[in-house]
Write a structure and sequence with these properties.
With 246 residues, this protein is an all-alpha fold. The chain is built from eleven helices and no strands.
Length: 246
């Protein structure tokens, strides 16, 4: 047949974990994360569904990988910027990421509640943000309060990131608590590796972990953190009121 002998057969792009995750993110962008299935991802990639399991073991691992993929889109710190500018720009970048991927905030929140620890990319992001506060002159206890106050805004949305189990005397702790929630499962990541990979989180966890006598049991004092955030908000509003009146 004319032209057949000269036809060039391009090799198929090898399947990889990143290709699987990218296809999953695209499908979630189009139809939401709830509509995802291995069959749909396989169809998008032109492979059989079983081929995907060489790269993601199950739906939970797929969702975790998708979270890390989109969190990886958050802009890196601007060189030479002060702490406030750096935090503001990265949070706004995180918000733009969520606008590109409307499903992501719900998946992040759900997986944070279900996992023993945040995903590696989220851990790395939080570790870097703690480092920004520390480099800006914040003592560890104030960094701890700042994380509670900002909550999930660090990742661009306004739901809480972490929910601990209820203590004997009060409601569950709601807010990122480096002394408790954002720490990897010890069976999965030894303390030495934790400290080497996420040094800022490890330092904060050692400095601010509460004992079992805390008002809500082991973990962070929910009432104290709530009042700190409330007072900080009221103080800020008072400064704005004075500036407007002046």
């Amino acid at each position: 047949m004319p032209g057949h002998a000269g036809a060039v057969h391009r090799p198929r792009t090898p399947l990889s974990r990143q290709r699987v995750l990218s296809a999953a993110v695209t499908l979630a962008d189009e139809g939401g994360a709830d509509a995802l299935s291995m069959r749909k991802i396989a169809q998008r990639l032109g492979v059989v569904p079983m081929a995907l399991y060489k790269h993601v073991a199950n739906k939970d691992e797929l969702l975790d990988g998708m979270i890390d993929t989109v969190v990886g889109e958050i802009d890196p710190p601007v060189e030479g910027a002060d702490w406030r500018t750096t935090v503001r720009l990265r949070v706004l970048s995180a918000r733009r990421m969520l606008l590109r991927h409307p499903w992501a905030s719900a998946v992040i929140e759900t997986r944070m509640k279900e996992r023993a620890a945040p995903t590696p990319a989220v851990m790395a992001y939080l570790d870097a943000m703690i480092g920004v506060f520390r480099a800006g002159g914040f003592p560890l206890d104030l960094v701890h309060h700042a994380l509670h106050v900002m909550g999930s805004r660090l990742l661009g949305f306004s739901q809480e990131l972490f929910v601990d189990s209820p203590g004997p005397a009060g409601p569950p702790d709601r807010g990122p608590s480096p002394g408790r929630a954002p720490s990897p499962d010890p069976a999965a990541l030894p303390p030495e590796e934790m400290a080497a990979r996420y040094p800022n989180i490890a330092e904060l966890a050692r400095a601010v972990a509460h004992d079992a006598g805390s008002v809500v049991g082991a973990g962070c004092d929910d009432q104290a953190e709530f009042e700190f955030a409330l007072d900080l908000t009221l103080d800020g509003l008072e400064r704005l009121r004075i500036a407007a009146a002046g």
